[in-house]
Task: structure prediction
Amino acid sequence: MSEVTVFEKIIAGEIPCEKVYESDRVLVIRDIAPQAPTHLLIIPKSKRIDSVDHLVDEDCEIVGELFLTARDVAKKVGLGSGYRLVMNVGRDGGQTVPYMHLHLLAGKKMDESTIGE
Ligand code: 5GP
Result:
């Protein structure tokens, strides 16, 4: 496992963040460099998982929790007309922080042709 990630520091309260939602198990913050009018990061708190590649069967609940949190937060902040969920995996997948997290992007019409860019 590599050095402590920015998300671990945010969870520990060592780095400030704009918090949207927090429970015992999940933290939702605004991305520091938003790529859409609404760009949230949904981060599991219970343990560090570097990426989807590092998931084990027992992590099933954590993964479910991320998606259910996305659903609930989308309702809470009023994203009724839709949103995009993205999870980057590994360097070629565009992942820059090796701590698994879900991006929630919204507030504009997503272009169907940009997913693979
Ligand atoms: P990844 O590239 O790993 O899929 O996503 C990492 C995301 O974390 C990027 O969108 C990046 O802008 C965001 N990010 C990096 N450092 C910070 C930070 O200190 N605070 C917040 N709120 N977001 C960050």
